[in-house]
Amino acid sequence: MVEISIVIPVYNVEKYLRECLDSAVNQTFKDIEIICINDGSTDSSLDILKEYQESDDRIIIFNQENQGPGAARNLGINKSKGKYVYFLDSDDYLELNALEKLYNICEEKSLDFVLFKLLNFNDKTGKTFQTKYYNMAFLNDRIGDNVFSYKDLYDCVFNLAVSPPAKLYKRELITDIDYPEGIIFEDNVFFLKTLLKAKRIYFLDEFLYNRRRRDDSLTSSGSDDYYDIIPSMNYLFDICRDLDDFELLKEGLYYKKFKELYIRFSKVNDVHKEEFFNLIREDCLKHKEEIDEDIANDKLRKRSKFIYESVLSSDDYKEFHYRIRLYDKNKEINDLKKENKSLKNENKKLKSSNKKLKKENKHFKSTKAYKVWKKYSKIKD
């Protein structure tokens, strides 16, 4: 048995695949298998996989008709033999010491999985940039260097990055968990299931992965596939309904749902916006009784509540879009005002402290000790 199985779904990525594979085969941690699932590629991706396989017998290739990354990862999990499983996207690449660091932490702390930070880079310019979502800085304040579970994070558990490459999983944790197939937001469902099952999680505050931002990627396309976000978010609720702490998770679930719905609505192509808005409204009406009751019980944050109420009260998608943008802009202005006020108060405190120091300095210069020291300094010079 190998220690780590790297699972790579591959679909028409001939332009980026070599860089991805190089980052896998050249890992400083050597006890790995590299499971590549060719998901019906029509370009030269399969030829590239075979080329690398000839020089590295740790590479194992499986072929399937195009079914999407969820189905490819499911096959990879089923074929994996490692103690741990790592999901690598075929257009991205790992830092060469990533798996060694992650493996050592998992072994040292007996983890179910370890989380870490992803660094984004623009495919056209090569410029790197960080995002709040993939930094997960709030974990440092809430958890620090401790092992945790989702029960330590009820109010912010749905702020965690769901992307598969941000974790190294213990294989026994995920062997009975499948990615939903046929939808494009399957990561949300898979991650929630692993999160609820895991007892020992750790956050490594390091960038070990480079995430390529492409305009032609599926989740950047703005197509009507974005509609999948609605059933995906509802599925999260269904997963949690039978839990004893469902009520404690509701605020985060609503936050996640309405945030994701609006993000996808904002990014979907204009030609699809009206239909998408109508589907969101239909979903809100379907769950209206439950949502209204949860609003009465303070289960929705202000923005979640505003998005929900705007969906139902707006005459059309344009009014809805305008309302949310205005809400966000006003919040941004208010946050800047608060920050400005805080800086003014801090400046006031610094001025007061400076004034006090000047007064103490003046008093010191009038003392006998200062005069003796000054006289001694002149003699020494």
From TrEMBL:
Q: Which residues form the Glycosyltransferase 2-like domain?
A: 5-144
Q: Does the keyword Transferase apply?
A: yes
Which GO molecular function annotations are given, in alphabetical order? Answer: hexosyltransferase activity
Which UniProt keywords are given for this protein, alphabetically ordered? Transferase
Q: Where is the composition biased (Basic and acidic residues)?
A: 338-349
Composition skew (Basic residues), residue ranges: 350-363
Q: Where is this region: Disordered?
A: 338-363
Q: Which residues are in coiled coils?
A: none
Question: Which InterPro entries does this UniProt record tie to the protein?
Answer: Glyco_trans_2-like, Nucleotide-diphossugar_trans
Q: Would you tell me the protein name for this molecule? A: Glycosyl transferase GT2 family
- Species of provenance: Methanobrevibacter ruminantium (strain ATCC 35063 / DSM 1093 / JCM 13430 / OCM 146 / M1) (Methanobacterium ruminantium)
Q: What is the lineage of its organism?
A: Archaea, Methanobacteriati, Methanobacteriota, Methanomada group, Methanobacteria
